[in-house]
Amino acid sequence: MTVQIEHMKVEANGQIFQVAACGPANAPPLLMLHGFPEGWLSWRPVMEALGDRYRIYAPDLRGYGGSSKPLSGYDVISLSDDVAGLMDALHLEKPVLVGHDWGGALAWVTAHRFSERLRKLIIVNCTHPKTMARAILGRDDGQHRRSWYMAFFQIPKLPELLLSAKAALAIRQNFSKMAGRKESLNHALVAEIAVGFRSAESLRGPVNYYRAAVRSLLVPAERQRADAAYRIPIRCPVTMIWGDADKALSMQVARKSGGDAGCPVEFRVLPGVGHFVSLEAPQDLAEEIDRAAKVTTQSASMEANV
Length: 306
What we know:
This protein is an alpha/beta fold. It has a single domain (6-305), classed as Rossmann fold (3-Layer(aba) Sandwich), CATH 3.40.50.1820. The protein has helices at 44-50, 76-89, 102-114, 129-138, 143-146, 149-152, 158-165, 167-178, 187-194, 200-218, 220-230, 251-254, 257-261, 277-280, 282-305, and strands spanning 6-12, 15-22, 29-33, 55-59, 96-100, 120-124, 238-243, 266-270. Strands 1-2-4-3-5-6-7-8 form an eight-stranded mixed beta sheet, with helices on both faces. Helix 1 (44-50) crosses helix 15, helix 2 (76-89) crosses helix 3 (102-114) and helix 10 (200-218) packs across helix 11. The radius of gyration is 18 Å and the shape is globular.
């Protein structure tokens, strides 16, 4: 179906965010966080599939698209403060938080720090950040080889300059390479997303996520801040949805995420689907999100009526 998507500018945590929204104002809220190198656009097919039954908000994250592009603040604590600030600015009470890739990492951290504000956490192809770091350092299931580009991204300025020179082609090729069902990949939408990364400035923020991630492992004060958050168990229900043809992230490693989340994690597999799930199997993903969100919403309603 076709839904009307509106756009708004929202101030949160001292930054300005462009937020796409759709769905009935009184419907259960979903807050959806995108990955790299995407933007709110990557959620559009899912918004179109679920926009008749949920009120959906999909922001461009810090450093992306129409949102603020500061030089700093790309550590997971500052970024999860962005998410909490967006919940405040959008007046979201107990939303279902959905995150993919880097958006998934922010969703994990947000759930550790602000579980009481969430009805449900839904993670799409994103290993828990602490589990991921351990896997890279310990070479678990070849995750260090899958994440080789993180080392390249530590070079100042060069990665974004090289990527922006042929951004449209490079992004289209990367999305195609990562697809599990290449014939199902939404190439038109991939091309639309790629248009937003034609300058070094448009890629600096997204690349800074990786620089900050490595710095948080090397700088003791930053590592301690993140570890303090991870020590707080996640207290809302968690579902992981996983395209099992993901070439970037090991499903074997991802299944260990519950240990670092400190809570049970429901794990749902989408056979044959690659890393960019919303661009390859949006209907399957929408059905899984709906199933997970609906169960939680119904349970909360039953509890309220007891």
